[in-house]
Design brief:
The chain has 388 residues and is of the alpha/beta class. The protein has four domains: 46 residues; 46 residues, Orthogonal Bundle (Arc Repressor Mutant, subunit A); 176 residues, Ribonuclease H-like superfamily/Ribonuclease H (Nucleotidyltransferase, domain 5, 2-Layer Sandwich); 57 residues, no CATH class.
């Protein structure tokens, strides 16, 4: 301010030329003329530094709109500027702010957390099937905690073209029967896809065993004409869409949550999947929802579902196998009963329920015995037996 006052005085009192004084101070003549005009109106106080902010900013976000942005962000802390702007458009906001304007608003209010950027390798190539029901990606993920300390697993499945979640089934242990039960349920609900892509977990394949055999998941796919594809070992990016879905599942549904029971967790998971499919816009789909891309399946012809592999499977925890002794008896859960001497040496399958023991030889039900002992049922053989 003192420098400006000296410049004004040099022109007004000392009679120096404006161009001479401006050159001496290193400012433009226009600036010196403005100082002189302000001095004439307000004296030396008018030479103080002023804000350079414009009086009006036509593109500035309205306070009401900014408050709505912040409210949406607090309701959905995992949403970024793109999703927030899309939601404003869906709500009918006229002239929605740009993504950068929303980002600056979030930054001003401390709702942006600095985090390390993930490295994207140039070798990664995006791919997508051209229509729904051409390919499903399926996997098993953990992290669902119950109040009793149990960690449950989820069989997840999404349609490759639409990102539509076709399966999200909870189980205590990811063994063959519950996994394949959820697979059959997904096939009954949505139809039979042409292909399914999974990793090399033992519940999906047995190709790395000493004696590769067909597991129940493989059998269901084969009997329904589904091509079962497997990823290369240690290649999680091949099933990148289902892995990305797992990240969304953890952040939006599982983070810091403990469920009272398996049934309660399944109910809440079903509600979240419904919202994911129908309400949540997806950036990879051009901000469409998965349901919009998946389309109504009932309008398309669906092949008949063959679920005999699951219905006739005897590899579940409620089945055991026993070899009949020479006198025609078998022992299960500390209980001995006879199935006939003529079957001595044969292997039979026994279904253990809460109150009954059912003895099967192939497709023949030999007898049903009332279970009188609650001892531990030990599986003597590891082989899988089927009713076929």
């Amino acid at each position: 301010m003192e420098q400006r006052y000296d410049a004004v005085v040099a022109v007004i009192r000392d009679g120096l030329a404006v161009s001479e004084v401006a050159a001496k101070l290193g400012v433009s003549r226009q600036s010196l003329y403005r100082w002189m005009a302000r001095y004439e109106v307000g004296g030396i106080e008018a030479l103080a530094e002023r804000s350079h902010r414009p009086k009006t900013v036509p593109h500035q976000m309205a306070a009401v709109l900014e408050a709505r942005v912040l409210e949406l962000r607090r309701q959905r802390p995992h949403w970024g500027p793109i999703n927030l702007r899309h939601q404003l458009v869906r709500e009918g906001v006229d002239r929605a702010p740009s993504n950068m304007a929303i980002y600056r608003a979030l930054l001003r209010h401390g709702l942006i957390e600095a985090k390390a950027q993930r490295k994207r390798l140039p070798t990664y190539k995006r791919w997508e099937r051209g229509r729904p029901m051409e390919l499903w990606q399926m996997d098993v993920v953990g992290g669902v905690l119950l109040a009793d300390g149990t960690e449950c697993k989820v069989l997840t499945g999404i349609d490759d073209h639409s990102r539509y979640c076709v399966c999200a089934g909870l189980m205590v242990r990811a063994t063959a029967r519950p996994v394949c039960g959820f697979l059959i349920a997904a096939l009954e609900r949505h139809g039979v896809p042409e292909e399914i892509l999974t990793d090399n977990a033992k519940v999906f394949t047995n190709r790395f065993a000493l004696k590769p055999t067909e597991v129940l998941f493989d059998k269901i796919c084969r009997e329904n004409g589904i091509a079962h594809h497997l990823t290369a070992p240690a290649s999680p990016t091949t099933t990148g869409k289902i892995e990305r879905f797992h990240r969304t599942l953890r952040v939006e549904f599982l983070l810091e949550r403990v469920f009272p029971s398996l049934a309660a967790a399944q109910v809440e998971l079903d509600a979240w999947v419904q919202a994911y499919n129908t309400d949540r816009p997806h950036q990879a789909l051009g901000m469409a929802t998965p349901a919009e891309r998946f389309g109504p399946r009932e309008l398309l012809p669906q092949p008949a579902l063959d679920r005999s592999a699951l219905d006739h499977d005897r590899s579940g925890d409620d089945w055991v196998s026993r070899t009949v002794s020479v006198n025609g008896t078998v022992s299960v859960s500390n209980q001995v009963f006879s199935v006939g001497k003529h079957r001595g040496g044969a292997t039979i399958d026994i279904r253990v329920t809460g109150e009954l023991l059912e003895a099967w030889h192939g497709m023949e039900l030999l007898r049903t015995v009332l279970r009188t002992s609650e001892g531990v049922v030990r599986k003597k053989r590891a082989e899988t037996h089927h009713m076929d």
